[in-house]
Amino acid sequence: MSTGAVVAIIVVAVIVVALIAFLAVRGGGAGGMSGARLKHRFGPEYDRVLDGHDGDVKATRAELSERVKRYGGLEPRPLSERDRERYGAEWNALQAKFVDEPATAVGQADALIGRIAAERGFPGADSPEHFDALSVHHPHSLGGYRQAHTLAGGPGASGVAGGASGHGGPQKRQSTEELRKALVNARGLFEDLTRDDGRPTRATTADDEAAATEPYEPDADESADTDATDTKTAGHRAPLSERFAALTGGRRDRTDDDERL
């Protein structure tokens, strides 16, 4: 064999090895997505799944890649302007109810978000695919809804026997602060699902909590119905932000006593 032929074989072999290595890195060995891309895409959901697999990165990548493959092509159905306003009014009503009935409000928030998700084309809240499908499209705001769903004892709530909303029987009493955080954080997914363009918002931060206690507005221009509702409410109660601010101090002693029982 001539020297030229040997050199050609070596060059071809090097190219093949390099191509295989490139494809392996790009594909990540799991459904065509590398671990870095999956972690960037799923954010906190990646960490949650990794913890569920006891730190097994390969299993985590396989599960999340399968979710992308299965639900990535799902195109959420748009909501009409009337539906968006109606859902906004429902959210404002349950948020106002939180001051007097926090557990009921969280249960209603859980049910409302599940209903909107189903209307937009995601698997229903009673489906084992519900959270998997949502995680592909709204991974950064899903955690708050998952927290509310767990406290409400909804279908698929891990490790929860009952619920705040009465889904599944008695459950240990949750502190008002836990319920408050769940409602504030769940609003992130609610807003994602009711946005005009359907794009997810960023994850809820501590700086968002003050804004999250204000009434939801689906548009920059408020509708006449929303104005009328807000005016009527304001005439009978203190502003919602003040009631939320006073909430922890007003109920904490009773909650702590309850937890010691």
From TrEMBL:
The entry's keywords: Membrane, Transmembrane, Transmembrane helix
UniProt feature, compositional bias: Gly residues: 153-169
Protein name according to UniProt: Secreted protein
Biased composition (Basic and acidic residues): 190-200, 250-261
Comp. bias intervals (Acidic residues): 206-228
Annotated source species: Actinacidiphila alni
Transmembrane segments: 6-25
Region (Disordered) location: 144-176, 190-261
